[in-house]
Amino acid sequence: MDKCNHNSSNKKRRKKKVPEPNYVDLAWVLRKAMKGWGTDDKVLVQIIGSHTYDQLQKLVEAYNINVKRDLMHDIHDETNHNFRVTLKALITEKATYDAECLQTALKGFGTNDEALIELTCTRSPDEIKAMFAAYKKINGKDAEKDISDDVSGDYGKLILAVCQNERKSTPDKTQMEKDVKALYEAGEAKLGTDEQVFIRILGSNPRAYCEELSKHMPKRMATRYLLSFKKKPVLILRKHSSLL
């Protein structure tokens, strides 16, 4: 009897599967919130802020098809300032959003280096490919060429190495030991720093490997190398390999 009660209790405690949202209904609720004089911001926050990325992509599709309007355009017209920027970011397809951010980072005089580093060093090879494809679609330009035109020196070489390499396979323990030795000999063990060794190793391996690699490097060695580099490569290494 106790056993039966226990099983029954377990079943009650099991989480019920959350039903898929009714995207068509939600689309019309959004339209109502933005229609006419003024906008019901609370409804926008409640709906857009409470759904996952995949759900929001389905909601955008449902809105565009059933309401026969463009949700992105309606949000742009009916909201403003940071509220508008945040809502649009939430419903924008990831690769498109990254491409737009990349365009902004490279636009005009000078480069937003922190944004460029964020977009390249924290994205997977597949995400970078998707971002570059979206960039081409939006601008009709080659993202890699635009990046190479904006960056230079060791900073530029490292950024491009990260962008160009597949970085999918993870080297084994033996290779990690070799890489740690190579990094030591290129930095701590010599006068000056051989930046090309760091660029080759950190720019051609997966992020997870670089993070693991940093754990095997003497702390003083990582710090010495970073201090010998200029600000931009330091930011890259922080994003890509967690050396600090």
Summed up, what is this model?
This protein has 244 residues and is mainly α.
Structure description:
The termini are far apart. With 244 residues, the chain is an all-alpha fold. It has helices spanning 2-13, 23-34, 41-48, 53-67, 71-78, 81-91, 94-106, 113-121, 125-139, 143-150, 153-164, 173-186, 195-203, 207-215, 219-228, 231-241. Helix content is 72%, strand content 0%. It contains 16 helices and no strands. Helix 2 (23-34) packs across helix 4 (53-67). Residues 1-15 and 224-231 have low confidence and may be disordered. The chain folds into three domains: 22-91, Annexin (Annexin V, domain 1, Orthogonal Bundle); 94-150, Annexin (Annexin V, domain 1, Orthogonal Bundle); 173-241, Annexin (Annexin V, domain 1), CATH 1.10.220.10. It is elongated.
**DSSP strand content:** under 5%
The low-confidence parts are 1-15, 224-231
- The Rg value, from CA coordinates, equals 24 Å
Number of domains: 3
What's the total helix number?
A: 16
Average pLDDT number: 82
**What is the first-to-last residue Cα distance?**
58 Å
> How many strands appear in the DSSP assignment?
0
Q: What is the helix fraction of residues, given as a range?
A: over 70%
CATH superfamily of the largest domain: Annexin
Order of helices and strands: HHHHHHHHHHHHHHHH
Oligomer: single chain
CATH topology of the largest domain: Annexin V, domain 1
CATH architecture of the largest domain: Orthogonal Bundle
The structure class reads: mainly alpha
What is the CATH C-level name of the largest domain?
Mainly Alpha
Main beta sheet strand tally, sense and closure: none
Net shape: elongated
